[in-house]
Amino acid sequence: MKRREVKVHPESDRLPRARQLAWRMAEIAADPVAVEDAVADMIVNRIIDNAAVAIASVNRHPAVTARAQALAHARPGGATLFGCGPDIRVHAEWAAWANGTAVRELDFHDTFLAADYSHPGDNIPPILAVAQQCGRSGRDLIRGIATGYEIQIDLVRAICLHAHKIDHVAHLGPSVAAGIGTLLHLEPEVTYQAIQQALHVTTATRQSRKGEISSWKAFAPAHAGKLAVEAVDRAMLGEGAPSPIYEGEDGVIARMLDGPEARYLVPLPEPGEPKRAILDSFTKEHSAEYQSQALIDLAFRLGRRVDDWDQVDDIAIHTSHHTHYVIGTGANDPQKFDPEASRETLDHSIMYIVAVALQDGSWHHVRSYLPERARRADTVRLWRRIHTVEDPDWTTRYHSDDPAIKAFGGRITIRFKDGRTITDELAVANAHPLGATPWTRPDYIRKFQTLTEGVIDPAEARRFLATVQRLPDLRAGELTALELAVPQGTLARNERRGIFFCHQEK
Fold it and tell me: What's this protein's family per the entry (predicted)?
């Protein structure tokens, strides 16, 4: 890896294309370097992971809405939709929209955290949709996804969006465009223009993850993926983009991020260097914000040591800057203590999450967020006794480049009314590659089986798992077998009439 300096250049000092970040990413997308076996295996894991969480949310309202919109854009030979089976095809950008929303709805797929946040599995729905529509092979798909993960994770390592309240999908638009460039074997010139277009149209504020968090949190990455598909299409048809989108004097860095004097060092693979970034990402065992994963596991452990929750006087969570200010009391969001808050808000309240995990000793993607669970009187009392504290040591570990040091957990101290305290800490979640029970293929399959049980037929689950595990051998045109069908008549419908109202839902 080589760190590339990225800074603002005024028009009077026009930056040559070869030195622009978007051009370098386009060159990486076009690099024919082979994908390592470990990377290909992890890509299969993450496709399984995405399918699991998408099917689990297939009848949740945002997924139903996105699917209704997609079904209004039918296309013979197009891409498939989760739940609809192989015969229902829509335009690729609308499949990216619907499938991306289903994947994101439960906040239950993979993550990478560094200078900023990301869910790099969000690259998979749009790249897969284009692969299906364009008749690409399993190996093409693997190469495209490897690029998408690489670009997004490398941007997340170096460029902080959160400090300027820009939503993290601003790194996703360029990564999807780059991944599609690899998938379709596009020339760097085309991918370069698409990356810039995608970034230009996918910058939005983080209000989507602040205060009263709405269903838009599920739609946001899908929207970025859809816009990236459209950007690639325009670039393939010869259209250009605002350039240089990162380094221009009125570009993203100058006007939305650290300003004209900013300087970033973005790590990128050298020519011929394998794209391995996916191996540095990690999935979720629990359906909650990633920064809560280790703290949930820790709460399970601590909860067994408490007999009477009403004897608890105070619970302090010592953790990183990001955890404190995004999902902790440092966010200053009263909604994070509101029993009437939305699921999306509760998912971003570490105080709620720890309270339930302490009491239940388990976490469930539905039951742990039920309104009656959030309103339980003893839980509300405990919940409101929890606060977070930024700890410089945990912040340092959060930002470390050393995987042996990097951590997303914290320390929990429970103080009782009689003055006793119990304290414990956990650096990484049990499922993390360095955790107590690091996940391998059987864990991803178990998660898939758990989340799809009762939603799809067992035979359909077996078919999908058998198909995806031979992904490298799937020939051109066979990627539509990566869809999943739910039994006839079980897909929920949005009965409201919108602009794209359609009668095709099953």
Answer: Belongs to the PrpD family.
